[in-house]
Amino acid sequence: MDLRQLNAFIAIADLRSFSAAATKTGLSQPSLSRLLKQLETDMGVVLIDRYHRPLHLTEAGSFFYDKISTILTEIDTVTSMTQRLSAPSSVLNIGFVPSVLYGLLPEIIATLKQSSPDIDVNLKDISSYQQMDALKSGEIDIGFGRFSHQDPWIQQILLRHERYVVALPKSHPLANVRKQRLIDLANNRLILYHQTHLPVSSTVTTEAMTQVSDKLSTNRINRAATHEAAPSEPITEPLLHLFAQYGISPFMTTTVSDLQVALGLVAAGEGITLVPASLQTVRTEQISYQRLVHENVTSPIYLHTLKDFVHPKIPDLLTAIYHVYEQRGITYRQQNFVSQA
Ligand code: BEZ
Q1: Which of 52, 116, 149, 168 is in the most buried spot, having the most CB atoms within 10 Å?
Q2: Mean pLDDT for back-to-back runs of 10 residues, the chain (341 residues)
């Protein structure tokens, strides 16, 4: 068994076609077919059923595909890490989700450049989830996002919790009310914009939510909405999750593709949303941002990097982050990396 055979099998299995796999790999169809046959003969197992179109994986082939694709990804990761270890790039590639760009990221980069004037920084807008693959492939050296990721290759530092604020149209009756309560917002259309949802382990079920709401006798919960949802269905949408922690289920929601669109809809008077406090500089002519009374309605900011290879400039970046936090009086808990190259 060799890597060429395994890569041929993965290409055929991914595309379910010899001709498409040949185009993708640049090999001829007879070569691909021979590599697959050799692999099957070595293993004594039929991996692909050739009698159906598109091609089908056999049960054994499907098992082998799941396991071997993980191993091949790990081989790519280790190869890329070894190359970076032997010749670290002078460029620091930073992945970020848009909501941190509106916050402190520009100030942090400026602080880093002041202390390390020779540094070259490259910024890439990339979702929290995709940052994990981008770290492994070497596309980025560090990622900033708002979701926790458990991955054996990745180390994660929780930088801080940022409070959410409510964004309302300027014409809204509550637009000038300081310190808002979630319960007073529940009857508005809530604009949802997160593309990544919470892992099921950290979510509230609608059943649990109903129990909480039943205990809160004095507030104005929309009970019809609370009972409509299927029992024990976990709340994975991040904003609905925050409301659910208070036993509230906003019953009018609109889901959009990103934060900018959500704020555009608020500006147009279509509804309200919750955004991390650093977004308060966006569209201030049409939008009123108000604080929430609830101290634990927050959005975390995580730093992710590889466990076994930390770009030599990353410790300086962490120092710049903590320096900005101290200058702004932001509460944080200092953490360090597990290992450094
Ligand atoms: C922050 O707002 O705390 C932050 C933003 C970007 C990178 C790191 C931290």
Answers
A1: 168
A2: 94 94 93 96 95 91 96 89 82 94 93 94 94 93 94 94 97 96 96 86 66 40 41 84 94 93 97 96 93 95 92 93 96 76 47
Which residues line ligand 1 at a C-beta cut-off of 6 Å?
100, 103-105, 108, 144, 159-160, 278, 301, 321
User: Which of 94, 301, 303 best tests ligand 1's pocket when mutated (most atoms within 8 Å of CB)?
Assistant: 301
pLDDT at 308: 84
The domain 161-299 belongs to what CATH superfamily? Periplasmic binding protein-like II (3.40.190.10)
Pick from 187, 225, 181, 180: nearest CA to 206: 225
Q: What per-residue confidence (pLDDT) applies to 218?
A: 35
- Per the CB < 8 A criterion, the answer to whether 275 and 259 are in contact is yes
The residue whose C-alpha atom lies closest to atom 7 belonging to ligand 1 is: 105
Tell which one of 96, 99, 107, 108 to mutate to probe ligand 1, the residue whose CB is within 8 A of the most ligand atoms: 108
E strand residue ranges, 126-271: 142-145, 154-169, 190-192, 204-205, 234-235, 253-255
pTM of the model: 0.79
Q: What is the pLDDT of residue 216?
A: 38
CA distances from 73 to 1, 69, 155, 158, 276 (A): 17, 6, 18, 26, 35
Domain 3-86 has CATH 1.10.10.10: yes
User: Element (H or E) spanning 133, and its range?
Assistant: helix 128-137
Q: Which atom of ligand 1 is least distant from the CA of 324?
A: 3
Domain boundaries, the chain: 3-86, 161-299
Alpha-carbon separation of residue 115 from 16, 95, 111 (angstroms): 53, 21, 7
Distance between CA atoms of residues 284 and 168, nearest Å = 10
Residue 283: predicted pLDDT = 85
Instruction: Give the residue among 106, 193, 107, 95 at the shortest CA–CA distance from 149.
Output: 95
Q: Which residues pair with 166 in a beta bridge?
A: 274, 290
Q: Residue 105 CA: which ligand 1 atom is closest?
A: 6
